[in-house]
Specification:
117 residues; alpha+beta
């Protein structure tokens, strides 16, 4: 009887962990894909416009992103949008785990890469 209770407790612990982690991971993947699309198709936009669009995408994907943690970098031949945020997971009643996400969406910027003739 005790063995069944322990197995049920372990199962419930794992199920709760999946219930807490899965939506956060799914939202992160959707946000990362949206940010990658933004970088690919908005290379002529200004840095401020890119940050504003990234913040709008974060709101759409339920991402707790602060504006100061979004950075646009333009290297030689590449455009990057870096975003960092922390999502707090409640795994047990009184225990929460801070899960940190760092995203670097990048695309080649062929207009500024010196490849023009």
């Amino acid at each position: 009887m005790i063995r069944k209770i322990v197995k049920l407790a372990v199962f419930l612990f794992i199920a709760n962990g999946l219930y807490q982690v899965t939506p956060v991971a799914l939202h992160n993947m959707q946000f990362k894909d949206a940010l990658q699309q933004l970088v690919l198709y908005s290379q002529k936009a200004t840095d401020a416009e890119l940050v504003n669009r990234a913040m709008a995408l974060a709101d759409e994907n339920n991402i707790p992103l602060d504006r100061e943690y979004v950075r646009v970098r333009r290297d030689t031949g590449a455009l990057h949008i870096d975003a960092s945020y922390v999502e707090s997971l409640k795994l047990l009643l009184r225990y929460s785990y801070p899960w940190e996400f760092d995203i670097d969406a990048q695309a080649l910027d062929l207009t500024n890469a010196g490849l023009r003739r």
